[in-house]
Amino acid sequence: MDEIPWFEYDEDDLDVAQRASVAVLAERAGSWLVDPLDTVVLPSAHTSDGQLIVYLDIGDPQRNQGVLTVGAHFDGTAVRGGELHKQDFTIRQTASEFEVASSPTELANIGAEWFEAVLARPLVRCDWHHAGRMYAVRYEYADTGQGLSEGFESPLAPDALRGRLAADGVVQGRSRIDRLGLGQPDVIAHVRGVRPDQ
After folding, report:
1. Which of 32, 46, 101, 108 has its CB surrounded by the most CB atoms within 10 Å?
2. pLDDT of res. 178
3. pTM for this one?
4. Phi and psi for 45 in degrees, rounded to 5?
């Protein structure tokens, strides 16, 4: 059975410099704790800005849940990266993390170092339970408390909380809400990265 490569692509889709950049990323990815299927190359011919995009889906393996998509846009002389929109793969302005100009190999190494730093950040899942069922979840970085995604199922929440949220104008049903107002989570589970207690 063939091994799936990291950042797999069709050779005809990339030019020489792009192949060199992706080769560096693929080599470095071999030491990452990620599934090769979670690493993706979008050739410049298939992107809206005409740039090579490489990205990584970060998920919660315990819940089989996608949490975050991070990636880098390479234009041949510079690389920009950050959290990516999950549909059009544009970099979210507020999440842009770096932008540097250099040679393709240096750009790829800088991009790889950035991916490694993202993967090392302490990612946790906070769960709130009522009557034995989870009604709210939030993924966040434990080092800063920065939220990445959250979910709330109103029918599973305690009646008093649902009433307070309804009074605050939160839509009933499945909604996204902020952590504020929920109190302390019932469970905080380490998902990936450096453990906060280390």
Report:
1. 108
2. 63
3. 0.85
4. -65, -15
Question: pLDDT tens digits, residue range 65-117?
Answer: 899 999 999 988 888 889 998 888 888 865 566 777 788 889 899 999 999 99
Q: Give residues with Cβ within 8 angstroms of 126, minimum separation 6.
A: 137, 138, 139, 140, 179, 185, 187, 188
Per the CB < 8 A criterion, the answer to whether 99 and 114 are in contact is: no
Residues near 169 by beta carbon (within 8 Å), at least 6 away in sequence: none
Residues 141 and 121: their CA atoms lie apart, in Å, by 7
**Contact of 174 with 151, CB cutoff 8 Å:** yes
Query: What's the CA gap between 91 and 69, in Å, rounded?
Result: 10
Instruction: Classify the phi-psi angles of 91: left when phi > 0, otherwise alpha if psi is within -120 to 50, otherwise beta.
Output: beta
Task: Tell me the C-alpha distance between 42 and 44, whole Å.
Answer: 6
158-170 pLDDT, tens digit per residue, is 998 888 877 776 6
